[in-house]
Amino acid sequence: MSAPAPTSELILVNLGTPTAATPAAVRAFLAEFLGDPMVVDKPRWLWLPILHGIILRRRPAHVAKAYAQIWTEAGSPLAAGTLALTEAVAAATPTDVHVTHAFRYGAPNLEERLRASLAAHPGSNHPIRIVSLFPQRTASSSETITVHAAKLAKQLGLESRLELCRLAPTGPGCIKALADGVEEARASDDPSREPPHLVVSFHGIPSYVNAKENETYTKDCQATFDALLTATNTPRDNATLAFQSRFGRDPWIGPATDETLVALARAGTDSVIVATPGFLTAGLETIEELGLRARADFLAAGGKHFTLAPAPVEPTPHPALVGDLAALAKPRQR
Fold it and tell me: Which of 7, 114, 169, 259 is 20 to 30 A from 272, comparing alpha carbons?
C-alpha cells in the first residue's frame, strides 16, 4: 500500500556540483552547465565547438584540482550544504509537506524529483512548489531553474500543479542569516585594529546580459548589499560591492572582487571581511576562489587579515533562512 500523498511538495533547487573531484566528473558537469544557452548566451554554432573542442579538453583537470582542495568526507560542500538545508526546512514544516532538493545540473536533478513524485503518488493533485536558492535574479542562476522547471512541468503534465516560488533579495530571514555571518566574522577580528572593510561579493555576469535583463541582477545585488549594510550597521565608506568569477573575454559587470581586494590592500587596508550573499551554500566560488586564491592575493598585496564570512548553512543552516524557506511551503491565498 502506497503512502498517502502529501498536501504539498517543496523542492529546493541549487545549481549543482560535480559528483567527484575528478576530471571526468568535472567534465560531465561542465558540459551540462556550460552547454545551457541561459548560462552562455552565444550562438550555438559558435559556442558548442569551442566548448567541446577546447574548454572541455583543457579546463576539467584544472577545475578538478580546485575541487580536490575543498572536497570533504561528505563529498562536495555544496551538496552537503544543500542536503543539510533541506533537512532543516523539512523539520520546520508540517509532516504532510514533503521537502526535498534537486540540482539544475548533475544529480539528483529536477526531472528525477518530479518523475519520482508522479510514480510515488499517481493521481494526486497536490501542489509542487519549486524555489531557486538564488535570491538575485538572472538568466544563468535563478531563471534557468524556473524556465527548466516550467518546461519539465509541461512535458510531465504538471503545469496546473507547479508553483514557482522566490526568495526575495531583501528577505528578512536571508538578510538576518547573512548579517549574523558578518557579525561572526567581526567577532573573530582583533578589536584593537581598525574595523575591517566589508567586501560584499556576488557572482558576476557579462555586462551585455545585465543590460539585456534591464539590470535586474545588479539592482537585486544592490538591494541585498544595502539591506546587509543596514542590518550590520556598516558605514558605506567601509564597504564595497563587487563581483567575482569572470569567465571568457566579454566585459563583465564590476568592480571585480579580486581586483578590489588587491587595490584595498595596496591602499593600506589591513583587514577585510568578505561576504557572499549570492551563495547561500558554500562551494567552489566561496571556499576556493575567495577563501584560498583571493585571500592569497590580498595578503601578497600587503593586506594582513582576511576573513571569509560563513555562508548561511555554515556550520548548520541558519534558523532565519530556514524560516523563510519553510514559509514557502504554506498554501497560497487564492
Answer: 169
